[in-house]
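Async update (no meeting this week)

Hi team, since we skipped the sync, here's where things stand on the single-chain job. The sequence we agreed to prioritize is pasted below, unchanged from the tracker. I ran it this morning and attached the output directly underneath so nobody has to dig for it. Comments welcome in thread, and please keep replies under the output.
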Amino acid sequence: MSEQELLVPNDLYLKAGIHIGTKFRTKHMANFIYKTRPDGLSVLNIHQIDERIRVMSNFLNQYEPEDILIVSRRENGWKPLKLLSEITGMRCFAGRYPPGVLTNPQLENFIEIKVMVVIDPWPDRNAVNDALKMGIPIIALCDTNNQVNNLDLVVPCNNKGKKSIGLLFYVIAKKYMEHRKLIKKDEELKYTLDEFTED
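Output:
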């Protein structure tokens, strides 16, 4: 795949550290690992990351924003999620996911959705379990240490770094807006990449 075919320039991916995994690797994620560095950290394949972000984007483009729920228990995902929600109208839970939101119509905050995205299937497992009970497709950002059972789409990436998550959701926001013809192809969002990724 040439540089032109990537969703963003290769050096942006590298700068965000989207490809830097952990020292721990599961057998589930072995196919996405390009190499292991001398310091023991696994390195994910950037072309596979890019390809999966594209699949995720195309999948989300099929849904209305209110039918999409994105969940991040970990604080590193809160800022990009809130921005994504503001720009696109997608629903998000930044913080503790309240169990039963999808499964118990008696709850005041009950919602119905058609697809779920989780930043990390381990801390976000309550959300994953609810989606499973309801038969809702689950997209998960997975690092080298994640298990991938019960997930419909795995997007390999560094799901712990603010810059990495910010870049990924910047791309998703841009592609979603383009698809909905809210911005022209290659037009910039009103928010910069830095606003998604800065600390």
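Quick observations from my side:
The chain is about 35% helix and 15% strand.
The mean pLDDT is 93.
Reply here if anything looks off.
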